[in-house]
Structures are given as structure tokens and as C-alpha cells.
Amino acid sequence: MSKLCQRLAIVGLGLIGGSFGMALRRADVVGEIIGIDTDPNAREDAVRMGAVHRAAGDLAMGIRQAEVVVIATPVGQIPRVLQAMAAHLAPGALVTDVGSSKGSVFLAAKEALPPGVVFIGGHPMAGSERGGIAAADPYLFENAFYVLTPTPEQKDHYLTGKLLELVQATGARPIFMDPWEHDRVVAAVSHLPHMVAAALVNTLAKAASSEVYFSLAAGGFRDTTRIAGGDPYLWRDIFLSNKERVLEMIDEFQGVIRSMRDMLALGQEAELVAALDDARKVRQEIPAKVKGMLAPLYELVVVLADEPGAIGRVAILLAQEGINIVDIEILRVREGEGGTLRLGLGNRESVQRAVSVLRAAGFTARER
User: Fold this and answer.
1) How far apart are CA 233 and CA 270, in angstroms?
2) Residue 297: what pLDDT?
3) Cα separation values, 187 from 102, 141, 191, 219, 229, Å
4) Which fold has domain 298-367?
5) The pTM is what?
């Protein structure tokens, strides 16, 4: 099988860098993947887990003669890494990153990199509350959006095509965006939600006068605030790198929550119901809209008993019929009673077959 490139270097062997390497090795599209990290334990784990072929602690040595360099450090470190690598890059090399802010990184790359080196920003819309190489997963990017931000002049460049193929090899779904438009979008759908989740947890901590608060918070509150479990230093860098857009979204959010507070304070029942109903309707549309950016997603729901292996049995039944699960989400779960599973499939025929297979096996299933 022909390779997309002979040598690719990944700078930063954490969750994203490690997962990227594992996905490319699984696809077997790169001749050699070198991992670069200052942490010797991360280097050792990356080699042992199969994320890279070999690892280096020295940046200059690690990127030598690499055709593609992927910067997978926290976004706050990317400008420094760009400056440090500039003199050691091979002529004609492609440099990309995985940071969740793109405008500031684009400007840093423009300033730091020499002529002849092509920089195209990237942001895989995938992650986990867990960090580090130990959490790396070769399937992390499967069916996830992966934003690429080439300039208009770069869109037809052969290196853009190469990066597109590398991203596709990880199982991700690449889309092109302007870097500043990207930053506006992620400020709304990623950065603001994380700050709100952290604020909710801190609010509970201040309000709690007994352990019963935390016991009752183990259900819906825990799910709502799941993302607050992320690395605080990583998120500090993300917020600061996209500060202006995040501040704009905080102001928008404050306006909305203040309006709803006023409805409650003034006893405006109709207005409060209308606001809640608007939110409900928009929330119901989000999965279809997100998946619809590239291809429609067809869904079914399955009711599960609260017993070990229930989800696994659903997956095995569908796999035996050759039905591929594109997306999966636990909608509701209640201890002792089970829950509801949402499955996203590639076409309506697959959904209809899946419903028949699951019903025949005793599950309650329906097309959504």
C-alpha cells in the first residue's frame, strides 16, 4: 500500500497526539511516525502503546526531515513551539496543529515559519475529560468533525490534499473553515459551555450546606457538568487564546440568563414557558443539524434493562447483521430501571433492519 508520507512527526504525546498517531498507524498510511515530548514517561508509553514508531525528547532531532509535523501541545504552547521548530523544518514541509483556537495560531505561524513551509491549522472536534497518552484511543476521531483552516490560496495546494487524506485516514470528517469563523463557532459550542459547566459546579460548591446536595447531584447535574472535569491548565490556555470571542459569548449568555431571571422574578409564566419551549425545540434539532453538515444521520432508540452487558448485546446483534453504528448516545439512565440508547446509522434501511433485529431479540426499539 502506498504511503501518504514517509515521515510524520507529532509534537506533544497527550490524548490528541497519541490518538492521532494510533489512528494513522492503524490505517498504515505513514512510513514512520516520530513522537516528540519532553516527558520520558510519555515517550515510553507512546512507543509501547503503538502510537508512534519511535520517540524523541529533542524537538530539532525529532522533526528532522519530517514531511508533515503535527503540533499537538496545549494551544498556549503552540506559538513557542512554532518559533523553536522554524529553523529545523525540512524545505517544503507541511505543519499543522490540533489547537481549539485557530486565529491566534494562524498569526503565530505566519510570523514564525520560514518561506516554503506550509502551515494549515486543524482542530479535531473530539476529546475526553481524561488527558494524557494513557487515554489515547485509535478510534477517538471516528466520525468526528475535523476542522481545517487553509487560506483561500492554499485550498488547491497539493499539501492541503495530503493533509485532507491524513485526516480522513483517522476516520474523521474534515471540513474547511475560515480560522476566525471557526473561533466564533467554538466559542459558542465548546468554550462557553465549558465555562458555564465550571460555573455551575462552583455554584453548587458554594451553595452546598450538606452532603445531600452532592448525592442528589449524581444524576442529571453530573451529566450536565461532565465537561467541567477537564484539565484546568489546558482550558486556561484555550480561553486566553480565544479571549475576545469567549467574552462575546459570555456577554450573550449573561443577557439570556438575566432575561430568564427577570421572567421568573416578575412571575411572567407565558414568557418563561416560551423561552423553555424555544430551547427544547432547538435542542431537539441539534443532532440532525450537526450530522447534516456532511451527511444525514438516521436514528433509532432502544430501551435497555439495567443489567450487565445490555449495550454490548445490542452492538453484537447489529454487528452480526453487518449494521455499522455511526453514533451512539445514552439518553436516559436510571439505576435499577435501565435507560434509553440512541443509535445513529448511515441510512434509513439500516435503521429499519436494526429495529427488526432488536425487536426479534426481545428489545424495545423504534425509529426516531
Assistant:
1) 43
2) 64
3) 11, 21, 5, 27, 18
4) Alpha-Beta Plaits (3.30.70)
5) 0.76
